[in-house]
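Might you be able to consider the sequence and fold that I enclose below?
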Amino acid sequence: LVINLGEALEILQKASGGSPWDSKRRTGEREFSSKSSQAKVDKRIEADTEVQATLLDQTEALTVFTDGACESNGRDTALAGYGVYFHSSTGIESISRPLEGEIQTNQRAEMMAVISALDVLLALNQTQNDGASLVSPVLILSDSRYTVTGIKEWVPNWKKNNWQTSNRNPVKNKDLWVRLDKSLTNLRRLRPVELRWVKGHSGNPGNEKADQLAVRGIHMQRLTPLRR
């Protein structure tokens, strides 16, 4: 879906209104321990949105929606999947896949969705070198605050701290953070890329499509069967 980025940001600001605690996701759990923590992140995201609206207004953006889903999240029986929705007008095939690996969580599924979107666009840039769509800005919309805040704020500090938290504990999901950081850095060498939070389950067609793809991916056949 190719849209004016200024319009996209306006839509995002409207879509993100209200509290993310209004409803419970059937596929995940809260990613912040308190409303005060969530409110602080909201302010940072809103400020970042205003800056990017100024920098990238009036440009054409390729908009991508990503989502992760997990049944029985947090339990030994958990199964996760992820989805990436590209509008049919882009000519890029949308993605619906199961989460690989023994650790099946909603957070990892959300991260893999963004990684997959970045890797698809990287592959397209490497195999084709014509057409404005390959150099136009990319806007990736995720309803995972964990993923969006993590890549923008936490990863730079973790890298400086040898992938340890401020408490000197190993970073959770380090393997995926490393992949996400690398893919994002590589694609940004070729075209502008922005990752933004969008409120989930709020009637946004693109987000709903990505959610459907993620849920569908949960029970698809995995490359390596889970040891259960």
Q: What stands out?
A: The longest helix spans residues 35-56. The two ends are 40 Å apart (CA to CA). Helices lie at 5-15, 35-56, 106-127, 145-160, 174-188, 205-217.
